[in-house]
Amino acid sequence: MISPDPRPSPGLARWAESYEAKCERRQETRESRRCRPNVTTCRQVGKALRIQQREQLQRARQQEFFKRRNLEVEEKRKIQSPRAKERGPSRRPGQPTDLKEPLSWAHRISSTRQQVSGTSSEVFPTQSHPPSGTWRDLADLPSQAGDLSPKDSPTKKPPRHHRGTQTKAEAAQPTIKNDASQQTNCGVAVLDKEIIQLSEYLKEALQRELVLKQKMVVLQDLLSTLIRASDSSWKGQLNEDILKGKLRSLENQLHTCTQKYSPGGMKKVLLEMEDQKNSYEQKAKESLQKVLEEKMSAEQQLQSTQRSLALAEQKCEEWRSQYEALKEAWRNLGTQHRELESQLHVLQSKLQGADSRDLQMNQALRLLENEHQELQAKIEHLQGDRDLHSSDTQHLQDQLKKSEEEKLALVAKVQQLQSLLQNQSLQLQEQEKLLTKKDQALPMWSPKPSHNEVEPEGTGKEKEWDFRDQLQKKTLQLQAKEKECRELHLELDNLSDEYLSCLRKLQHCREELNQSHEPPPRRQRGRWLSMLMVMIAIALAVFLANKDSLMI
User: Fold this and answer.
1) Where are the domains of the chain?
2) Mean of pLDDT over the chain
3) Beta-carbon neighbour count of residue 91 at 10 Å?
4) Cystine design at 509: which of 28, 33, 95, 375 (Cβ 3.0–4.6 Å)?
């Protein structure tokens, strides 16, 4: 008997190894090929860092965008593990997991689509940027399936307009507006600022809906291409494994035929081959069952995504109808706003006219108040002048009485002096008669008269001259007193005229005050009337006193 070669050939060693070992070996070769340095224009050293920095900046901009709009941001993006951890331990069981990941991602997108349609204020960043590991696994699928064209490759990134819109910080600042308000049909006052903010929110919601629709279309295309790629890939892998198994079995049969084995060794080899065949069949059945289960789950997920898509479209229609209703309401509010603005302009013009009239009335009122104050000051001044004039008139009346008394005394003295002069003149005439008689009796005797005889004649003349001087003085004093009385009468007449003019001015001022102001209360009117009556009585009393003094 020829014993088998103790050194196993490479083909026999590969044929004898298990399926798990083959998968591990293939995974190691794939990882070694992946880790090779491949520096080209599209695979530069700092490209991954730049992409990571760009993603971080975009994530920060999105967070700032959501913070400015008071939206709730749910961070669902997680940092995935390296590529060695993403893939499974074997090729065939790992392929369905790669298919599960985009399907679960599509299911997550559909759930977020439902959340967005339910609450139009929440937008998640995972909708615009799928996980990087998913795109990497989707990029590996065309390399495994050779019958797919590069046009159907799902590694194509979504266009720029499908990503989340970013607004500048200047555009996010609120515009300064007046706090005007509009009134709805229910009587609720809504600020124009809130209406403008609501319109901006509606515009943003419509823009997000359009972006989400485009993303859903892209995701549907990606899902269909992914399903086709997965079907073709696992069918191709199954065919490849079947052909490789047939080829290996034929090689092993050829190898066994070329070698000379003993009957016991042949039986042992055949038993081992049957055992391996049974184990291979069992593993193939298990893998097929797993693939079928994964296919069923993928179909279920596809149905769920279709249902969520239908719900999202229904919600979109509802939102569109609500948007149309809100647009119509906004038009009505705009017309009402324009009408209210026109009414507001009319009211503002009326208010400006009323303000101008109010200013004119205030100015007129200030002028009247100033005139009233001036008139009050004039009244007080006139009252002071009247008091002074009354005191002056009283003083003049006293002086007039004194002057009249002095006049009477002077008249009495003048009469006395005149009587004395008459008496003296009579005495002188008698003395002259006596002297003439004496001269006639003693014509020849002319001695000088004695001092005693001449003295009476001289004393009589001196007395006469003294009386005449006194009479002239008294007459001059009497004329001065009469002149003073005439001046006092003139001053009294002037004062009475001034007093009457002051009374007329006072009455005119009171009439102007009564015309300028509203009628005062009855108490105030009675007080003014009583004061007026008192002043008229005083004026009449002063006038009568002056008249009596003038008559005297």
Assistant:
1) 51-75+84-147+191-351
2) 69
3) 18
4) 375
8 A C-beta contact, residue 126 and residue 108: yes
Q: For residues 261 and 12, what is the distance between their CA atoms, to the nearest angstrom?
A: 15
Look at residue 442 and give its three-state secondary structure.
coil
C-alpha 276/C-alpha 184 separation (Å) is 82
The CA angle 442-445-449, to the nearest 5 degrees, is 100
pLDDT for residue 338 is more than 60: yes
Residue 103 burial (10 A CB sphere; 0-12, 13-18, 19+): buried
Distances (CA, A) of 24 to 55, 276, 362: 34, 18, 102
Burial 169-200 (b: 16+ CB within 10 A, else e): eeeeeeeeeeeeebeeeeeeeeeebebeeeee
The pair of structure tokens assigned to 94 is 């790992």
Q: What digits encode the pLDDT tens for the residues 141-192?
A: 334 433 433 333 334 444 444 444 444 433 344 444 444 555 555 656 677 7
- Location of structure tokens 């629709």: 213
Contact call for residues 324 and 330 (beta carbons, < 8 A)? no
Amino acid at 134: T
Kindly report the pTM of this predicted structure: 0.25
- Contact (CB, 8 A) for 212 and 163: no
Burial per residue of 27-50, b for 16 or more beta-carbon CB atoms within 10 angstroms, e otherwise: beeeeeeeeeeeeeeeeeeeeeee
